[in-house]
Amino acid sequence: MIIKTNKHERHFKYRDEVPAKILADDFEWLDEENGFDGFIHYRNCWYHLSEFVRPSSNNCPFDDGFWQGYISDSFFSGILLHVSDDCETYQIATYYS
């Protein structure tokens, strides 16, 4: 498993920073009360914190305790997420094999 990251801390985006078309097309399931912040813009794609899945300890290759969430692009690749203790910033990485 190869994990690529620059280890930069990034701030989450607020709902008003996301383009209206993206909100309407990709995040229509988020209401304004529950989905106001927690947006991520990475490699020209938008994600929300609630889309990430917590790694389980059942033979998960990136369950090293640092990465707290992932989204799979395919069986062999995806995105990893680590949220800071104060939940204001995050680190993001790409994984593939």
Multimerization state: single chain
Strand-pairing-aware structural class = mainly beta
Order of helices and strands: EEEHEEEEE
Low-pLDDT residue spans: none
Shape assignment: globular
Based on CA atoms alone, the radius of gyration comes out at 14 Å
The beta-strand count equals: 8
What count of domains describes the coordinates? Answer: 1
Strand proportion, as a percent range, falls in 35-45%
Helix content: under 10%
> What's the average pLDDT?
88
| Count of helical regions | 1
Give the terminus-to-terminus CA distance: 5 Å
Main sheet attributes: strand count, strand direction, barrel closure: 5 strands, antiparallel
Q: Describe it for me?
A:
The longest helix has 7 residues, at 20-26. The chain has one helix at 20-26; strands spanning 2-4, 10-11, 13-14, 37-42, 45-48, 69-72, 77-83, 89-96. It is mainly beta. The mean pLDDT is 88. 7% of the residues lie in helices and 37% in strands. The protein has one domain. The chain is built from one helix and eight strands, in the order βββαβββββ. The strands form two sheets. Strands 1, 2, 6, 7 and 8 form a five-stranded antiparallel β-sheet that branches. A three-stranded antiparallel β-sheet has the order 3-4-5, with no helix packed on it.
How is this structure best summarized?
The chain is mainly beta and about 100 residues long. Helices cover about 5% and strands about 35% of the residues.
Keywords:
1 helix; 8 strands; 5-stranded antiparallel β-sheet; 7% helix; 97 residues; 3-stranded antiparallel β-sheet; mainly beta
